[in-house]
Task: structure prediction
Amino acid sequence: MIQTLSALLLIYLCWIAGRWAVAEIRRLRLIRKYTDDDIADRIMLRCVWLGQTEQQLFDSLGKPLRVVCVNAGSGHMIYSYDELGTGRYRMNVRLVNRRVVSCEHHGSVR
Result:
C-alpha cells in the first residue's frame, strides 16, 4: 500500500514538474520575443491591456472566434472570444491600428 502511494505521489510530482517546465519555456520564449519580463508575465496570465498589440493579444488569448471589421480604412476591428451562445461572446476586444483600445466583458470572468 505504501509503495503504491509513493509511486502515485512520484507520478504526480513529475506531472507538476512537467507542467511547470512547459510554462517556464513558454515564458522564456515570450521574454525573448518581446524583450520585456512584464509583458511576458501579463501574457502568461492571459491579460488584456490598453495599448497591447494584436500579436500580444493573440499570444495571450489565442485567435478570436469572431472578427468584425468596423472600418477597414481606420483599421478598426472587434475581436470576440469565448462564445456564450449564438452570437454572444464573453469578451469583445476593440483594436484600432492593431492596438487594443477597449475590452468589454459580459457574464462572469473565468
The CA atoms of residues 25 and 46 lie 16 Å apart. Helices lie at 2-34, 37-44, 54-61.
